[in-house]
Structures are given as C-alpha cells and as structure tokens.
Amino acid sequence: RAKIMSYNSVDDAVQLLKRSRNIVVLTGAGISTSLGIPDFRSKETGLYSQLEKLGLGINDPQEVFNIDVFRDDPTIFYTVAKDILPATKKFSPTHAFIAMLQNQGKLLTNYSQNIDNIEANAGILPEKLVQCHGSFATASCQRCGHKVRGDTIFEDIKAGKIPRCGRCITALKSKGIGPLKRKRSNNSASKRSRRNFEDFDDDDDDDGVYNIPQAGVMKPDITFFGEPLPDEFSKRLVKHDRNLVDLVIVIGTSLKVAPVSEVVPFLPSHIPQIYISRTPVSHINFDIDLLGDCDVVVAELCRRAGWDLDHPMVPPN
Ligand code: OAD
Ligand code: ZN
C-alpha cells in the first residue's frame, strides 16, 4: 500500500481522531472480553479452545457455526448456544468510546462482528451500526423461513431443547400430525394420525411439541460459516461509506474471517488506518498499531485528546 502521509505514534492517532469526521470503526470479540465474554481465537480463554475440550464430535470447533453442520445436526450448536446468549446490560470502555465518537458526530459506521448486542447497551444507534454477523434479535425457521423475535426461543435454548417453528407445527397439526389429534375417538383416521404423531414425537416428554422432526428447526439469525452476510453490510460499505470515510479504526478482532477481513483493503488506501488489539496481525499493514488492552488504549487516547470517557471501568486520571 502506497502511503502518502506517514503516521506512526500515539499522538498521530490522537490528531487523526480529533480531525476526522467520518470514522469507520470495525470491531470484534476483543472489545467485550473485559465484560467476561470470551473471544473466539485467544489460546486457552477463547471459545474455540474451550469447545475443543468439550469433545463435541467435530474436527474443528468452528463447525459449531457452520450452516451445513447445523442442518445436519442442530444439537451441536444448541449445546453451545445457551452460553453465548446476550446476557448483560453492561458495556466496556471501548463500547463507550465508540458511542462517544458517535455523540461527537464523528462516527460514520460501526461494523461489528459481535453478536452480543452490547453496542445497544452503550447507546450506539441502530443507524450507525452494522451487525455484520447478524444477531440474536430475530430467529428464522430453517424450513419455511418464518421469522420471530429472538427471545421467543431463548427459553428452549436455556432448557437445552431444539426450538421448533410454531408455524410449521400449526401446519402439521392441521394435517393431523401432532398432539391435537391424539385425543380423538378411536376411528381409523385418528389411529393413523396417532401413529404419525408417535412416529414424530420421539423425545421423552411425549408432548409432541418440541420434537416433531417435520417442523423446521429455528435458528437465531446469526451468520454461520457458509451463509451470506446481511445485505446491509456490502450495500452500506460500497455505496455509502467507501466514499465518505476519513479514518478507519479496527479494534479487538483477529481479522481472520472474510468478508469482514476484506473491509480494510477495500477502503481507499490513502485513508489512515489504526489497529487496536492485544495481538498484532501480519496480513494487513496498518498505519498505526496500538497493541494492548483496548480499554486501556482508548482511555489513553481520550486522555491525550482531552475527552472525557465516561465509564465506571475507566480509572480516574
Ligand atoms: P477473535 O477471537 O478471532 O479475535 C479477537 C482479537 O481480540 C484477538 O486478536 C485478541 O487478541 C484480541 N483481544 C481479546 N481481548 C482483548 C482486549 N481486552 N483488548 C484488546 N484486544 C483483545 O474474534 P473476532 O475477530 O471477533 O464469527 O472473530 C471473528 C469471527 O470469528 C466472529 O464474529 C465469529 C468467529 O467465528 C462467526 O461465528 C460467524
Ligand atoms: Zn417453519
């Protein structure tokens, strides 16, 4: 990448922050680890190394989020899902930093790969946020496409059940497959439907609700490997942000997953780029690398800029 200007110091980063008006902030799991939410790829603490220890019968822990694996056997994902549901109203100093940029009128877009929904807790506005890998806000039936509010399946997820589609179940019941027909009198039609029902309700509770295999499995609308990203991602990046961006800040992501990893090379090469993370990356050459705990780095940037980062976790100066 041909660099027109040369930036390298922390103070250069502060000057860039001060003068920029259209900042793209690209975030990953590293901005939520201070809240006790594991990232994916950190050795020992990351979700993938935790999953390896569980022995889920898969070769690669990333397969938990693989759409073909899910279609084949949703129990693998649902074994893990209860532990990754959005569960906190807190937010980190780094989320507060992004919200502060927004409130100063400097945030063009926060592209987040995170599915923890913590951006909202910090007050980052939906119109400033692209959840590149979707979220738990909605869930869809894998058979008929029926979409519901995400939290309607949380109870099943927490109980270790595979959530099934209400619309599919209703359709099956009307065809005589399901619990409604069971209590009917003993004519031949009801015998047939009872047989159907018993074939399909093959779990222990015999309620015919959660385990009717014909009813589609519900999946939270988080983007699995093998699924396309939400349309908004490339639409906004290509049609809107690419022409407006004046600074790129990447925080807490290993940039290992495409197409989000391609955002930085896609943006005009003369736009300055800052990388904030514990672990350096070698496949993208940033103008400024600020290596360390992102909450500490953003607090120091604010201190030098003379900005008040209002967050209980930031130690007072
Ligand atoms: P990763 O776990 O790959 O990367 C997180 C990065 O943040 C690592 O480089 C860590 O060193 C760094 N990090 C962790 N805690 C930090 C802290 N407190 N301060 C600074 N840096 C810190 O997570 P992502 O890059 O977000 O996708 O992963 C990308 C995608 O891979 C996820 O969205 C998920 C996953 O598979 C899907 O599931 C589709
Ligand atoms: Zn359905």
List keywords for this structure.
9 strands, alpha/beta, 317 residues, elongated, 14% strand, binds 2'-O-acetyl adenosine-5-diphosphoribose
User: Could you tell me the number of beta strands?
Assistant: 9
What ligand molecules are bound, each kind once?
A: 2'-O-acetyl adenosine-5-diphosphoribose, zinc ion
Computed structural class: alpha/beta
Tell me the span between the first and last alpha carbons: 38 Å
**Radius of gyration over C-alpha positions, nearest whole angstrom:** 24 Å
Largest sheet: 6 strands, parallel
Q: Which series of helices and strands comes N to C?
A: HEHHHHEHEEEHHHEHEHEEH
> So how many helices?
12
Q: Give the low-pLDDT segments.
A: 180-186, 188-204, 206-211
Binding site for Zn(2+): 141, 144, 165, 168
Family: Belongs to the sirtuin family. Class I subfamily.
GO molecular function: histone H4K16 deacetylase activity, NAD-dependent; metal ion binding; NAD+ binding
Domain Deacetylase sirtuin-type: 3-308
Question: What does it look like?
Answer:
The active site is at 133 (proton acceptor). Residues 3-308 form the Deacetylase sirtuin-type domain. Belongs to the sirtuin family. Class I subfamily. Zn(2+) binds at residues 141, 144, 165, 168. By secondary structure, the protein is an alpha/beta fold. Helix content is 32%, strand content 14%. The chain has helices at residues 10-19, 47-54, 67-72, 75-81, 93-103, 118-121, 154-158, 166-174, 188-200, 231-244, 263-266, 294-305; strands at 23-27, 107-112, 129-131, 134-141, 147-149, 218-222, 247-251, 273-277, 288-291. The strands form 2 sheets. A 6-stranded parallel β-sheet has the order 3-2-1-7-8-9, sandwiched between helices. Strand 2 (107-112), helix 6 and strand 3 (129-131) form a beta-alpha-beta unit. Helix 1 (10-19) crosses helix 12. The radius of gyration is 24 Å and the shape is elongated. The model is unreliable at 180-186, 188-204 and 206-211 (pLDDT under 50). The site of zinc ion has 8 residues, from helix 8. Residues 141, 143-144, 146, 165, 167-168, 216 line the site of zinc ion (ZN).
